[in-house]
Amino acid sequence: MKGKQYELESILKKYWGYDSFRDGQKEIITSILKDKEVLALLATGGGKSICYQIAGLATGLSSIVVSPLISLMKDQVDRLVSVGIRAAVYSSDLNTSEKKLVLDDFVSGKLQFLYISPESLGAKLISQALKYASVGLIAIDEAHCVSIWGHDFRPAYLEIASSIGELKKNSPEVAVAAFTATATTKVSKDITRQLGIPKAKVFKTSFARTNLAIKVMKNMKQVELSKQIRTNMNRGAVLIYTNSRRRVEELAGKLTQSGIETSFYHAGLSPDQRVQRQEQFLNNNPKVMVATNAFGMGVDKPDITCVIHERISDSLENYYQEAGRAGRNGSQSTSIVNFDWQGVSLRAKMLEDSYINPGIANKIYNFLRAEIKNKGLHGGIRLNVTKILEELEEINIKKLSNTIEIFNQKGVCKAVIEGEELRVDSFNCGILFLSRYVNFTKLKKINAEGRKKLTAMVDMCMQDRCRQKIILDYFGEASRPCEICDICTGLHVEKNVYDE
Q: What predicted TM-score, i.e. pTM, was given to this entire model?
């Protein structure tokens, strides 16, 4: 074992320049190589990518990394390539010939790492490649996405288990390693079950952030927000999260007008704009970023000194992952949460809009079926979204788009909303009972779980006990008071000064 550890540390030194591992990293890597099935829960900034990258190199074979964001995959591949490790991304950004070249290199063993999204993993070309490639490791990043009880469920993650099965036919010794920053005990068990590794060895480093002071402020207004930003800018960069694209742009505009140079980021920007703004922020130009939760995953910026949630997060999982982007360099950092009932109500409405009950689903299905029978499909039709919403009255754009997404997943139709139009390419007009296609009971349970998560977030803001202890209790970790949050220091009384 001493020889193996020395080899791992040699890889760490050669490619990353570090002399030693962080707490838990070496144990996780060793277990991946020995036990073959691992679930690792590493807090934001805990160095999970090094775990699967070094484990992959140590196998001497090709490795597959499943990740939800193309930008995150590209960042990691660029980093690997820059130090002489052969890696590539297989994504929708590539044309057919480029995809084939990547897969040729993968099957021939020229690639040490193939990064791929869960949606692409089930593609026919990939399925064929898995039959011939020699793979030592498949790593699943952001593994909480596989659980319907997690905070960012993605249906495509459910297909990973079948791909693992295909891999094992050709590479029976392939190791399976799943990674996430935040997961409750319930979610952890569901991850291993859904991935088909129920006996996986579970590693859980402490979620405690001894350098992160959590502060909750009630009804924080623009003047106080600007004051907090200016104070924290003196020590490093400031990242501000809010809940919608419109609010992101509005808030960034107000801060800029007040003399605070501010950039903004959301999924509505073009890919080039997102890359440019991310790089500018990494270089502190400017030092302040306002964003939706589309920003931050995989962004390795150690000098963020403060993360502000201008609107309350929808769960403790999302909140703590986002807040954990502050203080990665080990310096004292701050998380500020603006707590107001307007923000809570907005989150509750977003949750309600995401819930599709049988009445809504049947109403939308019957409307679309009538339109298609009347006009004919003829290779695809386009329907005006505004007219659809006027006809269906109580159904808004969110409910419509979420229903269409579910219909696509379950084979009811192939459709997409493009601006003001709903384009329907195919539609099953012969469905008598939607419940045979859509599991409404499961959707109801997911919605109930979402309400519980939001309630837990609200409770953290309202209770008069250590903020971090509340969070660690939620994740099943025993802890003592942090002694640096607003409750522990007695500074929470000051929040009432800003009530209006």
A: 0.85
Rg (CA), the chain: 24
Angle between helices 70-82 and 271-282 (to 10 degrees): 60
Amino acid at the residue 68: P
Residues of the chain with pLDDT under 70: 1-6, 46, 151, 297-298, 492-500
Here the tokens at position 303 are 């000098």
Q: What is the pLDDT of residue 386?
A: 94
pLDDT of residue 96: 87
